[in-house]
UniProtKB/TrEMBL annotation:
GO molecular function: cholest-4-en-3-one 26-monooxygenase activity; heme binding; iron ion binding; steroid hydroxylase activity
Keyword Lipid metabolism included in the entry's annotation: yes
Any one GO biological process: cholesterol catabolic process
Name used for this protein in its record: Steroid C26-monooxygenase
TM spans (from-to): none
InterPro entries: Cyt_P450 (IPR001128), Cyt_P450_B (IPR002397), Cyt_P450_CS (IPR017972), Cyt_P450_sf (IPR036396)
Annotated metabolic or biological route of this protein: Steroid metabolism; cholesterol degradation
Similarity remark: Belongs to the cytochrome P450 family.
Keywords: Cholesterol metabolism, Heme, Iron, Lipid degradation, Lipid metabolism, Metal-binding, Monooxygenase, Oxidoreductase, Steroid metabolism, Sterol metabolism
Organism of this sequence: Mycolicibacterium duvalii
Cofactor(s) needed: heme
């Protein structure tokens, strides 16, 4: 820890970031973040069970750190984890069994591994996939009409649609989708009691073992019989002429299956709630569907499904004059960056026509979300299908947010509606 860190009296507001339950309470979280942006934008946080870190809450600082990817590394700590979970993950990796996904890697290795899947997310691939995504969007809006006049929009609709899309892109059989659904929830909802498999890090690591067993079998089968899907591209992907290691291969599936699912579910359900809570914006969008592009972007800014990523200093440095020592980690508060008063006009206003909208919900720089175009397309398809058919919609109960420091959003959104 640097001398400055030891001298600092910790800002109570900053502790909130190290409390998973705060992320299930929008008002509490945003009050703390607004305070930090105004008074303590590089805030020291020492609050167990996490290792000490620096919370970065200004949009400009988040971008500057992500841009300087030779100074600010993803290794060894790409995201906030308890010290115990952090140590266990490290030990598992050293034992040759663990998770090392794109988000854990730094260049030059990161660039080479990212290139293996990149073609599957480019505009051409997206155009090829659009028919399938539109078809799935229609299927889920039809389902919503069928089960109406009430549903839990998260568990009945928002969860399944993006999972279906990403598993189709991977090329997995439909009968395995239920199992993947449970595993991704257990993995990403790790802090939330409703999703937790067990209380110890070992029990939670068992989720990873299940993932690895499933995808280990898939790799073997795609190497033997390559097919035209993303799973084959990953299984047969090469770095410097060599097939990827087992850890890198299996981790690739994990990042695609998990990052491509819960995040989009959170943006879709957060987007619908924002429209319900802002009826004038809902009417504006229904009246002019050409606003869908900016509306989707605003839904993503508004919900910011990925709360944070971390970077660790490769050498002694400073941010806004605050010294940060080599080896210390910074927490990039995307939720805060996306409400930064210096960047967004009236950041707490939901505006379906917001332009420009330079949010950091997909991160920035070399790790910029690989699936951003896919997420945008999915949301566009779903809301373009849903809104013209929706005569009315209102809350049928209290929306509930998940308690997690990482990927999260609504876990329940009870709605009552009339849908054609
Ligand atoms: C609204 C939905 C989504 C949000 C908010 C989101 C957000 C993010 C963020 C913040 C990052 C880290 C960026 C950084 O460190 O600078 C990321 C990385 C990533 N995302 Fe997404 N994501 C979404 C949907 C998707 C989808 C649909 C996929 C499809 C597979 C996906 C795959 C990935 C992958 C593979 C990475 C790692 C990229 C790298 O480290 O090079 N994401 N995403």
């Amino acid at each position: 820890m640097s001398a400055s860190a030891m001298d600092l009296k910790m800002d109570e507001a900053a502790k909130v970031l190290a409390d998973p339950t705060a992320y299930a309470d929008d008002a509490r979280l945003h009050a703390a973040l607004a305070h930090l942006r105004a008074n303590n934008p590089v805030a020291y946080v020492d609050h167990g069970p996490y290792r000490p870190f620096w919370a970065i809450t200004k949009h400009a600082d988040i971008m500057a750190i992500e841009r300087a990817n030779d100074l600010w590394l993803s290794e060894p700590r790409p995201l906030l984890a308890t010290a115990e979970a952090d140590d266990l993950a490290k030990a598992q990796l050293e034992a040759g069994f663990g998770l090392r996904t794109l988000i854990h890697m730094d260049d030059p290795h990161h660039r080479k591994v990212r290139a293996i899947g990149a073609d599957w997310f480019r505009p051409k691939a997206m155009r090829d996939l659009k028919v399938r995504v539109d078809e799935l969007a229609k299927r889920y809006v039809d389902k919503m009409a069928e089960i109406g006049p009430e549903c839990d929009f998260v568990t009945d609709i928002a969860v399944n649609f993006p999972l279906y899309v990403i598993l189709s892109l991977l090329g997995l059989p439909e009968e395995d989708f239920g199992r993947m659904h449970m595993l991704t929830q257990e993995m990403f909802g790790g802090d939330d009691d409703e999703y937790k498999r067990g209380t110890t890090p070992e029990e939670q690591m068992a989720v990873l073992t299940d993932f690895f067993n499933y995808f280990g079998a898939l790799t073997a089968s795609r190497r033997e019989h390559p097919t035209d899907d993303l799973a084959s591209a990953i299984a047969n992907g090469r770095v410097d002429g060599e097939l990827m290691s087992d850890v890198d291969t299996l981790s690739y599936y994990v990042i695609v299956a998990s990052a491509g699912h819960d995040t989009t579910k959170d943006a879709i359900s957060g987007g619908l709630l924002a429209l319900i809570e802002n009826p004038a914006e809902m009417a504006r969008l229904k009246g002019d569907l050409s606003l869908m592009g900016t509306a989707v972007e605003e839904m993503i800014r508004w919900s910011t499904p990925v709360k944070e990523f971390m970077r660790t200093a490769a050498e002694d440095t400073e941010i806004r004059g605050v010294p940060i020592a080599k080896g210390e980690s910074v927490y990039l508060a995307y939720v805060s960056g996306n409400r930064d008063e210096e960047v967004f006009d009236e950041p707490f206003r939901f505006d379906v026509g917001r332009d420009p909208n330079k949010h950091v919900a997909f991160g920035y720089g070399v790790h910029f979300c690989l699936g951003a175009a896919l997420a945008r397309m999915e949301m566009n398809s779903l809301f373009t299908e849903l809104l013209p058919r929706l005569d009315s919609i209102e809350l049928a109960g209290k929306p509930e947010l998940s308690a997690t420091t990482f990927v999260g959003g609504l876990k329940h959104l009870p709605v009552r509606y009339s849908l054609r």
